[in-house]
Design goal:
This protein is an all-alpha fold. About 75% of the residues lie in helices and about 0% in strands. InterPro entries: Homeodomain-like_sf, RD_transcriptional_regulator, Transposase_8.
Length: about 100
């Protein structure tokens, strides 16, 4: 049997998964099972996110609340789509300019 391909996760996914534990008060095991992750991996993400939040509070920064995080993710996706559209338009305009 061939070895399983190692999955990689974006930083945004890790933060969102960690916040499902932090914000909801559910256990790491419950959320890990729901997301199809190993509990050890998710617990590392939760510890990292809690450290990041604590460090932000020490420096006087306020961490994002769930609504702000959701808005940030939505805007990042929108920016990605707009960048793809712009790249396409640049290529199309170069193609038609060469005609």
């Amino acid at each position: 049997m061939p070895p399983r391909k190692r999955r990689s996760f974006t930083a945004e996914y890790k933060v969102e998964a960690a916040h499902q534990v932090i914000d909801s008060g559910r256990t790491v095991a419950e959320v890990a099972r729901e997301l199809g992750l190993n509990d050890g991996l998710l617990s590392i993400w939760v510890k990292d996110e809690r450290r990041r939040i604590a460090a932000a509070e020490v420096h006087g920064d306020k961490p994002l609340d769930p609504a702000e995080r959701a808005e940030l993710l939505r805007l990042r996706k929108q920016v990605t789509e707009l960048e793809k559209d712009n790249a396409f338009l640049v290529k199309a305009s170069a193609y038609f300019a060469a005609m």
